Amino acid sequence: MPPPLDHPSLNLQLWTQPFFVLQLQRDEEIPSSIIELLKGGPSQFLSVTRTHEETSLVGEYHDWMPQNFKEKSTWSCIKIMGPMEHNLTGILAAFSLPLKLAEIPIFALSTWNTDYVLVPSVMAKEAVNALKEDGWAFV
Predict the structure, then answer these.
(1) Is 108 helix (H, G, I), strand (E, B) or coil?
(2) Domain around 73
(3) Which of 43, 109, 116, 118 has the least CB density, counted as fewest CB within 10 Å?
(4) Angle 16-19-25 (CA atoms, 0-180°, nearest 5)?
């Protein structure tokens, strides 16, 4: 299924730096390095989502981070350029379908402006090819 709209905000961008995805148990403390970033450290992608079951940490990996972050930095990020209006529907569904058909797992995150989809780094080239074949444009 091609992109639902022909609009520059739906162009894609593959980020080159590695991304980590970590899960903390319900009562596990968020590492101090992450807390410092949330307080206003270097500008980078970082997502902290806490539920009653667990805490998920997702972000760009940097060499100064703890070893367990390096071990989990096996993802590449594809950004939908955005910003997107909140009344758009089906964007993430249309985006993820060619990846599903290519059997590429995803980890998706949404912000106010747009969506970010992580794919295993070893499959990033395959993901880009599947999306291009489906009509998505990379910038």
Answers:
(1) strand
(2) 8-134
(3) 43
(4) 175
66 occurs within a structural domain: yes
What's the predicted TM-score (pTM) here? 0.89
Burial class (CB in 10 A: 0-12, 13-18, 19+), 32: exposed
**Residue 3 resides in a domain:** no
d(CA 68, CA 31): 11
**Residue among 92, 104, 112 at smallest CA distance from 128:** 104
CA-CA distance, 72 to 74, in Å (whole number)? 6
CA 91/CA 89 separation, integer angstroms: 6
Q: Could you give the number of structural domains in the chain?
A: 1
Q: Residue 3's closest CA among 127, 113, 89?
A: 89
How many CB atoms sit inside 10 A of residue 139's CB? 9
Report yes or no on 1 lying in a domain.
Answer: no
The tens digit of pLDDT for each residue in 55-100 reads: 999 999 988 888 888 999 999 999 999 888 888 888 899 999 999 9
Average pLDDT over all residues of the chain: 90
